[in-house]
Design goal:
Length: 131
């Protein structure tokens, strides 16, 4: 089973954002940071999942069984219900990407179990320079 861990970091809400993605396969791990536009933390959390799914496709890992691990209860609940009042477009895009897999499990994990993706997201935030 492929495991996808995602997290987002936002400086301000809304503010500059970044996604952290950790992909774990039986053979290896992949780490990715992705800058995101200025947006709310919730929007960034959905974007992180979508970027992770697209990266899996790029790597040719879009088949078999997938477990998506998030520490955002909103993202987890929205994917389970297949509905999000303010983020339906993001949910729909994620569900389209998930169709490639035989089985997809959505898993909420506490922050402490999502540290890899969390650190990647924090590292991906643009550096603020002051004079």
């Amino acid at each position: 089973m492929i495991k996808l861990y995602t997290d987002a970091a936002t400086r301000g809400n809304p503010g500059p954002s970044a996604a952290g993605i950790l992909i774990v396969t039986p053979e290896r791990q992949y780490q990715l940071q992705a800058p995101l536009p200025v947006q709310s933390n919730h929007a960034a959390e959905f974007a992180a999942v979508l970027i992770g799914l697209k990266k899996l496709t790029e790597l040719g890992l879009n088949q078999g069984r997938l477990q998506i691990n998030v520490d955002s209860k909103l993202v987890f609940q929205s994917l389970e219900k297949r509905y999000a009042k303010h983020y339906q477009a993001a949910v729909d895009q994620i569900l389209i990407e998930e169709k490639a897999y035989i089985m997809v499990l959505h898993q909420w994990v506490p922050e402490r179990q999502n540290r890899g993706a969390h650190h990647l997201a924090q590292q991906g935030l643009p550096k603020i320079t002051t004079c």
